[in-house]
Design goal:
Oligomer: single chain
Largest sheet: 6 strands, mixed
Number of helices: 22
Low-confidence stretches: 110-119, 225-238
Radius of gyration: 30 Å
Mean pLDDT: 78
Helix content: 55-70%
Number of strands: 12
Structural class: alpha/beta
């Protein structure tokens, strides 16, 4: 029997190692080869390997080296890609060096013009999603596409953004894929991926390490026939309270933004007391935005926190708990409590209530909604509602009554948080807090947060124009696009610059954003719109203290730019 020892190089990625091993094993089984595999960095295995001079040693990858054990063997070096794509030919050519003619004749024939090997190029599918459904969703998708292109792989990415799912994956796409990836900071339904290997991770992982994410996905074990209904999942994504809260925020955000803009338009049409003049256009806009959209956001927040925890059975108790929170005056804080309570309670009931097979159908439509909604409602009315209402009232009164010094400190903190991770969990925590305060008619924090979120990309864009020698050609070319993102309050526009030089760029961004937030809070700026950047500032009455607000954004931008001039090193100049 033909004998072969395959030594895999230590610098191969996990995906390449697994694909090469599977290809070699399958080929050996078909051709009846005696195959011994040496995986990377297994010294004990190497010491025990057979030293048969009749065997061929196949060195797979550039880092695979022949040692003294193989001095009497025929040695063939080959790339991992060649092994994966043309396994039969590689094995036949290698064994032809030592095998007897009759053994060569028995080996699988290699066609003169080899047909394309099915799945010789790994195929992947992916879904990306972030709480706002804007920047991180599409940046993660772009990073995965580029990583796959660099590796020579095929990939199809579905983006679940603020405008709905785009480039939607079909059942055929998922069935033919070698691996699936979910890069999301919110809940994504995985029902479509049953029976396939699935890697779940965060959008930041995909943005900053697309190739590593793809390698981890391809390195997952393939499900066996018995595991077809239980997908192999490597859970690397951010889980727990943060993920569940961000899922709720992602569904709530359109209501808050639409409601806030409609309220601002109401003021623009009918003045600051537009809601008091029944029947007018200003009154109608206030009814749509303030009396309806803003009333719905707490129930929706609670419902989708519960949905993230318990899936669809959590929506009903979450909605009811959130509506009770709004009715009882517990506001967004009560909604958060209701969402977590509904989610974990429903999950507990679903896991521990066992019904006979004949009655299993009534569990999701009768038993779970009835019990979970009843318990959540009673807890909200008799236990949670009053204390949370008192806490929210205290927080609102404290913010409204802040003196200039304390307002300045809060503005510093909120501004710095917005620039710390530019759309990550710290940024979202500051924004979520400010949204809750906006719904409670406290308008200062959201102004500080928007100012702090606009200045990082604006400061970077200005620096690329004034201090060209601090940035490479690509960064300078992207400066104008970064400015537009900054004007639109998309802080994520600063991420490529921060990723290139984080230790110098991020502190500079935080300093400028902290200054912008502090000036905004200290001068009493109030903003009644939760998003839109500079474009909403032209709506009459949307901003109180417009000049102070413009000064805050301008000051933060200039300080960011000067800090970057000092901190960043000169770059070798290149033509764009």
């Amino acid at each position: 029997m033909a004998k072969l020892i395959a030594v895999l190089g230590s610098n191969l990625s996990g995906a390449h190692t697994r694909l090469a091993v599977e290809a070699l094993k399958a080929c050996a089984l078909r051709g009846g080869y005696d195959l011994t595999l040496e995986m990377p960095d297994l010294a004990a295995q190497r010491a025990a390997s057979p030293l048969n001079s009749a065997a061929v040693v196949l060195l797979v990858g550039e880092s695979a080296q022949a040692d003294e054990r193989f001095k009497d063997n025929k040695v063939v070096a080959v790339s991992a890609s060649e092994v994966i794509a043309h396994t039969d030919k590689v094995m036949r050519d290698a064994l032809g060096l030592v095998a007897a003619p009759q053994e060569i004749a028995a080996l699988p024939a290699v066609p003169e013009k080899a047909a394309p090997v099915e799945k010789s190029v790994p195929r992947l599918v992916a879904i990306t999603s972030c709480p706002t459904g804007i920047a991180h969703t599409f940046m993660a998708a772009a990073a995965l596409r580029k990583a796959a292109q660099d590796l020579g792989y095929e990939i199809k990415v579905e983006t679940q953004g603020s405008v709905g799912a785009k480039n939607t994956l079909t059942e055929e796409d998922i069935r033919l894929a070698d691996a699936s990836i979910i890069a999301a900071d919110t809940h994504v339904d995985t029902a479509r991926f049953e029976g396939v290997r699935l890697l779940s991770t965060s959008t930041n992982d995909a943005i900053h390490g697309g190739k590593d994410v793809i390698a981890r996905a391809l390195a997952l074990p393939m499900p066996t026939a018995a595991e077809k209904n239980a997908p192999k999942v490597e859970k690397q994504q951010r889980t727990g309270a943060y993920k569940h809260l961000m899922t709720g925020v992602s569904y709530m955000l359109p209501l808050v933004i639409a409601g806030g803009l409609l309220i601002a338009l109401s003021f623009a049409v009918g003045g600051i007391h537009a809601g008091d003049k029944t029947g007018t256009l200003g009154w109608a806009l206030m009814q749509i935005g303030g009396a309806t959209a803003f009333k719905l956001y707490t129930p929706v927040l609670a419902a989708f926190i519960a949905y993230s925890i318990a899936d669809r059975p959590g929506i009903c108790p979450g909605l009811v708990g959130g509506m009770l929170s709004a009715t009882l005056g517990a506001g967004f804080l009560g909604g958060i409590v209701a969402g977590f309570l509904a989610g974990y309670l429903t999950k507990f009931l679903n896991d521990y209530i066992k019904l006979p097979k004949e009655l299993a159908g009534i569990k999701p439509v009768l038993v779970l909604p009835l019990l979970s909604t009843l318990i959540v409602g009673l807890v909200m009315i008799y236990v949670v509602g009053v204390p949370v209402k008192i806490a929210l009232g205290w927080l609102t009164n404290w913010l409204n009554g802040m003196q200039q010094a304390s307002a300045l400190v809060l503005g510093l903190i909120l501004g710095a948080m917005m620039a710390f991770d530019m759309g990550g969990p710290v940024n979202k925590a500051a924004y979520t807090f400010s949204l809750g305060m906006l719904a409670s008619n406290v308008y200062g924090p959201i102004a500080a947060v928007m100012a702090g979120g606009m200045t990082p990309p604006l400061g970077l864009a200005l620096a690329t124009m004034l201090f060209k020698n601090r940035f490479n050609a690509h960064e300078r070319a992207e400066g104008k696009a970064t400015a537009i993102l900054g004007l639109s309050f998309i802080t994520e526009g600063a991420i490529p610059y921060a990723a290139e030089d984080p230790l110098r760029v991020i502190p500079c961004l935080m300093i400028g954003s902290a200054v912008a937030g502090a000036i905004s809070m200290a001068t009493g700026v109030q903003l009644k719109v939760p998003h839109g950047g500079i474009f909403v500032l032209f709506i009459p009455n949307a901003v109180q203290g417009l000049m102070h607000y413009a000064c805050a954004v301008l000051a933060g931008t200039v300080i960011t730019t000067l800090a970057l001039r000092i901190a960043k090193k000169k770059q070798p100049m290149q033509l764009v």
